[in-house]
């Protein structure tokens, strides 16, 4: 297992947490991916915000920015 690319489940979906975008080639093409920076930004946000971002990532592969 690569500690820089972790597979998990969130809201019933398979997701990948990666250190940064340089690891994006190690996940399946249509995967829902969160970078460490995105996860850190979302960590303190309300649950509704996390769910909305997750749906946006699922549908449109958006990036989380501050």
Gyration radius, rounded: 11 Å
Distance between the termini: 30 Å
Strands in their spatial order, largest beta sheet? 1-2-3
Uncertain ranges: none
Q: H/E series, N to C?
A: EEEHH
The number of helical elements comes to 2
**Helicity, as a percent range:** 25-40%
- Provide the number of structural domains: 1
Q: Judging from the principal axes of the Cα atoms, what is the shape?
A: globular
> Strand percentage, roughly?
15-25%
The structural class is: alpha+beta
Number of DSSP strand runs: 3
Largest sheet: 3 strands, mixed
- Mean residue pLDDT: 94
Topology of helices and strands:
Elements: E1 5-10, E2 13-18, E3 32-35, H1 36-43, H2 47-60
Parallel strand pairs: 2-3
Antiparallel strand pairs: 1-2
Report on this model:
- The protein has 66 residues and is an alpha+beta fold.
- The chain has one domain (5-60).
- Helices cover 33% and strands 24% of the residues.
- It contains two helices and three strands.
- Strands 1-2-3 form a three-stranded mixed sheet.
- Strand 1 and strand 2 form a beta hairpin.
- It is globular and about 30 Å long.
- The model has no long low-confidence stretch (mean pLDDT 94).
